[in-house]
């Protein structure tokens, strides 16, 4: 279990674009997974764990599981916050949780993604890659 004081989070503000909405003017459900990606990208930039850093170390991190629960709709032109939190695990995985809040600070949706490490041969890493363990140590995880 991860304690509250060493949670790594990132908050990113996004505006709903016209092309993300359906004919009813609400965000199409598939775009929430893209918003999760926006959150991961912002998290990586803020905390020094970007996809380019991972690639430079010789790894890729495909998503093996994603979940998304919808509570309220987002509409064209609205802004919302994506709060992305890294969930520390002893396993060689990247686990992130997401909470999206609308302009009224209401929870719009929440979710989680799990990514694994594959080396340059496409083999699954069962132990934390050295660069990732060094990053975790640096972050106090």
Automatic annotation (TrEMBL):
The keyword Protein transport does not apply. InterPro entries: 4-hydroxybenzoyl-CoA_TE, HB-CoA_thioesterase_AS, HotDog_dom_sf, YbgC/YbaW. The keyword Hydrolase applies. Keywords: Hydrolase. It comes from the Bacteria. Signal peptide: none annotated. Gene3D superfamilies: Hotdog Thioesterase. SUPFAM superfamilies: Thioesterase/thiol ester dehydrase-isomerase. CDD domains: 4HBT. Belongs to the 4-hydroxybenzoyl-CoA thioesterase family. PANTHER family: 4-HYDROXYBENZOYL-COA THIOESTERASE FAMILY MEMBER, NOVEL THIOESTERASE SUPERFAMILY DOMAIN AND SAPOSIN A-TYPE DOMAIN CONTAINING PROTEIN (0610012H03RIK). This is Acyl-CoA thioesterase. It comes from Chryseobacterium endalhagicum.
């Amino acid at each position: 279990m991860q304690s509250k004081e060493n949670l790594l989070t990132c908050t990113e503000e996004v505006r709903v674009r016209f092309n993300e909405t359906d004919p009813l003017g609400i965000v199409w459900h598939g775009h929430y997974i893209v918003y999760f990606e926006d959150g991961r990208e912002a998290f990586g930039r803020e905390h020094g764990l970007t996809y380019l850093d991972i690639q430079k170390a010789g790894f890729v991190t495909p998503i093996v599981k994603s979940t998304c629960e919808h509570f309220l709709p987002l509409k064209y032109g609205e802004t919302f916050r994506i709060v992305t939190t890294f969930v520390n695990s002893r396993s060689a995985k990247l686990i992130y949780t997401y909470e999206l809040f609308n302009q009224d600070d209401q929870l719009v949706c929440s979710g989680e993604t799990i990514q694994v490490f594959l080396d340059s041969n496409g083999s699954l890493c069962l132990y934390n890659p050295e660069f990732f363990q060094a990053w975790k140590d640096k972050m106090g995880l």
